[in-house]
Amino acid sequence: MINALGLLKRRRFLPLFTTQFLGAFNDNLFKTAMVLFATYEIFADEAQESFFNALTAGLFILPFFLLSALAGQLADTVDKTRIIRIVKTVEILIMAVGAAGLVLARTGQVTLPLALMLLAIVGLGVHSTFFGPIKYAILPQHLGEDDVLGGTGLVEAGTYLSILLGTIVAGFVYHSTAIVAVLTLGVAVLGWATARAVPPAPRLGPPLKIDLNPFRASWKLVAGTMHIPRLFLAICAISFFWTIGSVLIIVFPPLVKNVLTADASVASLVLAVFSVGVAIGSVVINLLLKGHISARFSPASVIAMGATVLGFYAVIQGWTPAPAGRLYDIAGFLTQPIAPLVLGALLGVAIFGGMFVVPLYAFLTTTVPKDQTARTVAANNVVNAGAMTLGSIVVAALSGAGVTAQQLLLAVVAMCGVSAWIAQKLHRACD
């Protein structure tokens, strides 16, 4: 059995892992703090809260749709490490804009602070768009073939552990916007420093003629990838997964506030449980597959994910709301009789989700030539972003039409069924 944790001792892996860990932490700290601040201190209506959360998710995802093609072309044309260092420098500027919005939010203004924070969200989306293809595409270049699945699992687990940490921190400090501003700027600078230690990853194939037209480039990129049946199925399965994830992340804060009648600390706890569950699933699937890249567990994993979402929906129907005018804190929430079932169901959703998606990412980066991996991941990101943006729009529209966060969970169950069907086709085609 491959000891994936041993990769953390290697200079060809640890600096990259640390850099992506800090980036994901910072993204999530800022986004979660902003959403919690808006949910608990600006808005007082479930429909408005869901709409704002959907808007935030949509703005973060939009750059993936528009710029992934350019990001993939650049990553397969120039040294990937050089791009990482440029992206981490820009992150400092992005967080400066977000920090200004956070600080102004405490002066009583609303429009300008929210505009600056949403602008930072767009900037973080651009940052992630250019970093995203690299963090997976660089692995086959820096690691041996037998280590790619383990490395992918560690990157995925590290991402969700950083989300966990960012979520926990945001839940404690969101009300102090000055602290959030200092933390996000500090972490951005630390990420810039770790990026300096990532080993070079020069271009492997011939140079590309870069197409700067985002729509034409995206179309060519997707068309050049999706005609390959195995990649088409893998990308479709991943896209459904991230659409499911985006819907869950959008509905969790208003669901916690209005159904579980709990405060921001509990919303942070719920997101943290979800994050640690995906990290666990990422490690478990690597152990089950023993380093062999295969989709054979993906159909069962996403079916189990849908079943646990349905279980979560059933459990919260019996939840006892807090007294009128009050919200449960973490202590009050955990003393409720069915709180362990609520958290257990969420943990199951996340574990099975991690088991589903990690082998699919490893599949993307190992079934194409190494000089095409970044473009393949970028094509995946374009399709993912389109699906997630559509999901955010649908959630915003349904929320405006009066559909509750609880009812949206049933849509997630149906989407898990579609994902299982696609994953089964991929398994039959490739394994």
TrEMBL record:
Pfam families on file: MFS_1
Topology with respect to the bilayer: Multi-pass membrane protein
Major location category of this protein: membrane
Listed InterPro entries: MFS, MFS_trans_sf
Keyword terms: Cell membrane, Membrane, Transmembrane, Transmembrane helix, Transport
Membrane-spanning residues: 50-71, 83-104, 110-132, 179-199, 231-252, 264-289, 301-319, 339-364, 376-398, 404-423
Top-level taxon: Bacteria
SUPFAM superfamilies reported in the protein's UniProt record: MFS general substrate transporter (SSF103473)
Subcellular location: Cell membrane
Keyword Nucleotide-binding: no
Name the UniProt record assigns to this protein: MFS transporter
Organism: Sphingomonas corticis
